[in-house]
Amino acid sequence: MAYLPSNILLTPEEMARADRMSAESGIPSFGLMRRAGYAVAATALSHFPAAVRFAVLCGPGNNGGDGYVAARQLADGGAEISVHALGDPDDLKGDAALAFQLWGGSVAPLREFQPQPGDVVIDALFGAGLSRKVSDEIAGVISSVERAGVPVLAVDLPSGVDGRSGKPLGAAFKAHCTITFMTRKPGHLLLPGKSLCGDIEVADIGIPRRIIEAAGGSISENGPPIWSAHLPFVGADSHKYRRGHLAVFSGETSKTGAARLSAIAGLKTGAGLVTLASPEDAMAANAAQLTAVMLKKVDTNAELSDWLENAKLSAFVLGPGFGVGSRARDFVLALKDSPLVLDADGITSFRDDPAILFDAFEDGETHLVLTPHDGEFGRLFPDIAADETLSKPDKALKAARRAHAAIVYKGADTVIASPDGRVAINTNGPPWLATAGSGDVLAGMIGAFLAQGLPAFEAAAAGVYLHGEAAGLAGPYMTAEDLAGQAGHAMADLVARF
Hints:
The structure is a single chain. The chain is α/β, with parallel strands linked by helices. Mean pLDDT is 95; it is low at 235-239. Helix 5 links the parallel strand 4 (119-124) and strand 5. 43% of the residues lie in helices and 14% in strands. It folds into two domains: 12-217, Rossmann fold (3-Layer(aba) Sandwich), CATH 3.40.50; 224-497, UDP-N-acetylmuramoyl-L-alanine:D-glutamate ligase (3-Layer(aba) Sandwich), CATH 3.40.1190. Helix 2 crosses helix 4 and helix 10 crosses helix 19 (438-451). K(+) binds at residues 63, 123, 159. One of its GO terms (biological process) is metabolite repair. Pfam families: Carb_kinase, YjeF_N. Homotetramer. Residues 15-213 form the YjeF N-terminal domain.
């Protein structure tokens, strides 16, 4: 059997390339289709053993071919089958035509399909390959299935969902489960496609790993394969400076909590030392709340320059609760040669002239990490944000290249991108991460990884993943303080695995 490289994601175009490469290497393409169809039938029976009828909706391409093979298998197993085709199946070509001949039973036009109680719909219309808005006929079928409330098993991807972006193209099925082949597509992980797929199964149909890897591009699921080789390990020769000194900048006295969350998360994530750089008017408020985190008064550019010159500082976090304006811009520009996580107010401070920020960090290895949510992304990259032709990974990558930075484009489907072309989609973040202060905790986690020597993209990806793991430990009623507190346990679990 072939090896399923779980973190690799293939776009629809890349999956088509893998199919071609398989055929060119001597693997019979119809054999792949038959195995795909068999997998669909097996999934249908395992998920819906009480189905009265399987209604197989077949499209005009290879996705439809998978459906015809599945229909034959299910019929041979004694199931009641109804097959409906989009277009004339006699016009099918290649493997899809062979699959139709293998079916050998009656086929009704798709427009005649009416869902019945007890039906399970097998959606083999388009899969991930659709690149245009669905027709009114297809939209009508989708609507009738939704009204009937019958479950849907999607083949490859719910028809109507763009396999690259996860966006519905006019209308899309909402599947109970989805079966795809060899690897998932970005559309399986990006919203709203993720919410339309239901449970996702990945079937091995026999394409070798070498072909999947050769066909693949730069998009993957975020996880340890990306960054585990860079994880810091605490050994007998470790000391606090070797583990890095992280500096987090605090805002004024009424807005100090966000920076403290970042600082505590940085300490829990393994930074050897963490110092909170505070304006004078916030020193008392911060001192009253800190124990292991150190405190340093930094009010002016001159004080910051003196600190940079005389202290062993490894990385910085600026933005949480800091305030928007010229002071933030001046501090960031003073840090242009240092590893920096720029978040929240720090990002917004450059909305009027983002090029100042981008130009400051263009030299050397990537050492800036930007962590925008949708609104902040639009402030720094308004033209990219407004381009509806781009997927979220496309937008993050364009932004990374423009900014000379690793981008953490936050959301329920957070995307991490590097100027060198690598993109990772995160999947382990539970929905309860949508709580006040969780972004401040994330900034501190990423800062800690930068302080410990991880490159910017790896630090960003590891921080986002650890953030999700800590949230899982904290549970659905967590606060940001709980999340920061669990960072150390999540970090210990990660290190123990490698």
